Amino acid sequence: MILKTALLGAVAAISLAPAAFAERGSDGHVNILYWQAPSTLNPYLSGGTKEIESASLIIEPLAGFDETGAVFARLAAEVPTLANGGVSEDLTSITWKLKPGLLWSDGTPVTSADVVFSGEYCMHPEGGCAQLSKFEGVQSIEAVDELTVKVTFKAPKPNPYLAFVGGTSPILQKAQFAECLGAKAQECTEANFNPIGTGPFTVTEFRTNDVIQMAANANYRDPAKPAFATLTLKGGGDAASSARAVMETGEFDYAWNTQIAPDLQESMAAGGKGIFVNAFGTLVERIEMNLTDPSPDLPEGERSTKAHPHPILSDIKVREALSKAIDRALLVEVGYGNAGRPTCNLVPAPANYASDNTGCIAQDVEGAKALLAEAGWADTDGDGILDKDGKKLSLLYQTSTNAVRQDFQALIKQWWNDIGVEVELKNIDASVYFGGDPGSPDTFQKFYADVEMYANNFDGTDPEAYLAAYTCEKAPSPETQWQGENINRFCDPAYDALVAELGQTGDVAKRGEIAKQLNDMLTKNTFTIVPLVDRGRLSAASNTLGGVVLNTWDTELWNVSDWFRVK
Amino acid sequence: MLTYTLRRLLLAIPTLLFISLVIFLLIDLAPGSPMSQVPLTVPPDVKQKMMEALGADQPMIVRYLLWLKQFFLIEPLHVIDSWTGLHLAGDAQRVVSWQSRSPVAEVIAQRMPQTLTVVGLSYLIGVLIALPIGILSAYRQYSWFDQIGTFFSMIGFSVPTFFTGVLMIVVFSVWLGWFPSVYDTTLVVDDWASLKLQVRQMAMPVTVLALFNASQISRFMRASMLDNLGQDYVRTARAKGLTEQVVVLVHVLRNSLIPVVTVIALGIPTIFGGAIITEQVFKVNGLGALLITAIYANDLPMVQTLTFIFAVLIVLFNLVADILYGILDPRIRYD
Q: How does pLDDT run across B155-202, given as a tens digit for each residue?
């Protein structure tokens, strides 16, 4: 047995060997398909995943996240930490050192001035930078010498790996973007479409919302990489057809986000030309409970505000019963297949921050009925719907228009009907639902419904900002133009105090403990948020493409420099 | 005829201005926001700043007047600049897409070739197939040929392109492997090998669209021929001893073409509109795909400019159809 394993290992090592010694550009051409086409290559102006990921082939940050969520150095010589003195003891500054001898693709040296400039570019008040939150709390960014940059924060920053870490905040070349600061950023089409970078590839042709042609960067820091000489990133179509182009026709090597129905996943995988790769991050499909009264009988400006608590859902027993009635495993089977798994957590990962809460996974219809009876709900008029004090247990359940979400709505409606809850379903076009227009009654922030469903995640590996969204003052209301992320209008002084504590804690283990407590307060302790499915990334890779490691913590194309052709 | 054309062209100006206002109001009042595709991880105050940088938070009337100025003044100046090498437009802001921050006109110019080759060619092929089928079907009404023609045009008419398109991909790309399922817009045709590639990648989208166009136009042609074949002048022509060929192809066909020409002329603007569904299925990424992604992203300047160009084309081709009437039928005079 051991001999067999050893032989297999030797065979594997031999088959990998050509890749390890490959020269730059020796593997020809690679085709990547994004069914949503990138519209620009400047992630500071877009914020969209498709733009961030396609740009990550060309421009790079100081450090990135690997597939485990750990920070690793890209342009930086090493990751600054408290231990190596890169992060100051009082957590108010971080000092980055660039790798010596780095060159831009045009042959000029990368210096600390480029890093300082990238910060200025995004923090310019008129620039409309989409990644501004990465620079929140930054007091100054200064060049100490040619290769050293010091970022100083206004207050202690326990998680300093925000600015210049991950595909969302790459380094731009100062010489190219110097004229593009502030309002001018919108007019620099040439620079936005053809950024000069340090990544494994350079742009040869960019067609907005269509296709990007790239060639290996002659000045890339690793002389043996990338293995591919040229790369095409095509956009357009839909998830099913892009999966087909990899799995069935074999025209493409890699297709991004091939989120298709589970039965289609199986039949395409049987094609044998490629495999689906999946990995789990922090995206959680959840039901949010409205703790305020959305009744249309209330005057405008008082609906869904904390002036009126919700007549039904203010009772924790009802919320718990609604959660118990759901069979999350079946939802995964129907909607996501391999790309999903049941979860009870708002923060399902990374391991340090994920609570061990699994109490909601098993469906418990009888338990749900008992809870409702305990809360005083009974079917007094025999119509199958519970009532209490003449009020029926009837809920309006809204979400965005999307095939999987409508399937979920139908299933959950059935389960809730089984425990005597009347459910009215509503779906709203995503551009309105997520559009945030304060004039529209149908935005998810306004929440003119009793329960609603959508998915959200957080950027990077630290959930602090994500959990801090549920403090009292972040509840959307007419006074805030209905902006705010605490859409449940959850308000607990103990929660706010714990969030403040998290903001001052630097020790990673302690941070994990606090984050778990916060997660539990929102989920299993109060059922304010009822998580359903932990949604992974699902992409398709051809059998002839080697080196693909799916990463949910950073851009999916994070290690394209390591990709090679399997021969 | 010339004064008529001039009068119509002058009348078109207020019409088009009114259309541009209606389009603008429709797009602007429709629910949705340019920020709806920005991930939820971007906080609301940052989204607000992004809206300000785009100018999307300005009052409606300001944005409309700005668009009018950009479209009717600055864009033409840019065209003149690029022809003559002058610098009339200066640094004035052009109509810029909210998705890509690039000038809308450049994106449209980039998309035009693939739309014209794929959708235009399919229209041309559709017309070339439809006319003979329509003529022969009418001349031999209720024959086998007519029945088969009717059957196929019913299929072409009633089966949607998103079905025929995907069906063709499954048969010809997945099973047989003859044609690519993804259109390569960057292919440059400069030798026989690349021409062959171009023909292969165009085969499926062109067939799908040509079937749809041909079925529509052949029905018009057949109906119009049938109307004329029973007329007195046809009997007279035959009585004079003219050959069947002359009777059908000269006398009947010319008269029957009048309504068909209108249909064909009015269909030409739809070529520029692209074929939203077919382009999406085969990833041709022409004007149709451009329009639909812009609509999804609430990219107001792009949608406004594209739909306005379509409106201009429709108004123009209406005029062309009216003028063609006069050429085909000398009795029709507008002056």
A: 888 888 889 899 999 999 888 989 998 898 888 888 899 999 999 999
pLDDT at A22: 62
Residue B139: CA count within 13 A, CB half-sphere: 15
Q: Could you give the ipTM of this predicted complex? A: 0.85
Q: Of A82-86, A303-307, A448-452, B38-42, which gets the smallest average pLDDT?
A: B38-42
Alpha-carbon distances, residue A326 vs A410, A451, B134 (angstroms): 12, 14, 60
- Return the structure tokens found at A26: 């020796």
Residue B84, Cβ density class (10 Å: 0-12 exposed, 13-18 middle, ≥19 buried): exposed
Comparing A232-241, A376-385, A430-439, B115-124, which segment has the lowest mean pLDDT? A430-439
Q: Any idea how long chain A is?
A: 567
| Chain A residues whose beta carbon lies within 8 Å of the beta carbon of residue B101 | 40, 45, 185-189, 192
Instruction: Say whether B36 and A238 touch across the interface (CB within 8 A).
Output: no
Q: Which of A262, A263, A268, A266 is nearest to A241 (CA)?
A: A268
Closest CA to B34 of A462, A467, A309, A186: A186
Calculate the alpha carbon distances from A200 to A57, A222, A226 in Å.
Answer: 6, 9, 6
Angle at B170 between CA B165 and CA B172, to 5 degrees: 90
The sign one gets for the Cα dihedral B126, B131, B136, B137 is positive
Q: What pLDDT is stored for residue B335 in this prediction?
A: 65
Contact B169 A241 (CB under 8 A): yes
Nearest to A63 by CA among A115, A101, A103, A108: A115
Give CA–CA dist A321/A365, Å, rounded: 8
A232 touches chain B (CB under 8 A): yes
Contacts of B166 in chain A (CB under 8 A): 241
pLDDT on residue A46: 84
Q: Does pLDDT of A10 surpass 60? A: no
Q: Does A521 touch chain B (CB under 8 A)?
A: no
Least confident of A19-23, A32-36, B153-157: A19-23
Distance CA A258, CA A241 (A): 9
Q: Do A241 and A537 meet the contact criterion of CB atoms below 8 Å apart?
A: no
pLDDT tens readout for residues B210-227: 998 899 899 999 999 999
**Which residues in chain A are contacts of B105 at CB distance < 8 A?**
none
Helical ranges in B119-252 per DSSP H: 121-139, 144-158, 161-168, 192-229, 232-239, 244-246
Give B-chain residues touching A433 at CB under 8 angstroms.
36
